[in-house]
Amino acid sequence: MLDVVLVKLAFEHVDGPVPAASDSFSSTRAAPGSPEPTSTRSPSADSAAPGMPGGRLLLALAPDGTMLHAAVGGCRAGTTPQVAVTAPGSRTFRDVPVAEDLGGVLALRAEARDELVVVGADVECEVAEYRGGTGLRTWTAGPAEDEWHIDLDGGSPVVHAPGGPVEVPCAPVALSTLDAVRLLCDDGALVGTSDGGETWAALGRLEDADAVAFEGPGRGVALASRDDCPVTVLATENGGAGWETTGCLDGETGRAVALRAETVAAIVDDTLWRSDDGGRTWEPLG
Asked: How far is CA 78 from the centre of its chain?
């Protein structure tokens, strides 16, 4: 079960008490006078990663730099998900055979190149946890009761917590569970829980956001649309109460983002990107 850090204590440590639920959250743009972020635009569109599937994507990043991404798919719709991995230092990704009857992907977790977890549903929509071992050629299935995830259908105000389904205050867009549980809502609200989903606290607001990821209760990154950049990279150090613009990625839609220490990974349109300086400069992988 994930160790969820108390939301209130985390904010008192990072940037004072948790803000009250309201519409007066800090702006998502960099404050006047802030240094301009380093340009992150790609010199060439030819670096885009081929074969990136359509639909909702998930992305996980391990401490050693391994990246795991997947198309959600849908067991009820009869679509087949795609799961792929990028090894540390590699500029390409390869598909991995998780299970022959995999019908959908609900969540991902990456701890190392040979320690990857896929929470998926089979063609009958039964949920299981699949763990990848040496070489990722074989995956072991087990129970997934302790895993957070958004339902395959999405759009409903319910997510699955270790204790079972829990109601959330919005339709979920993205769920981040690395050392703290944070949920991005379809209206731009950012909420968190410290009690397994029984209660949710308003943490901030990020308008027109497509993806968000946190490493612990305070530090996070996000992809959001802005007038001058459709895929703006933003960062927070106070749990989402305030955001700083750190860069701009080529493309039209930010589809997924992940964070580990100073390494950030993002999927924009059909391109997988990587940054090793917290999201200020990027290189496209393909």
From this structure: 24
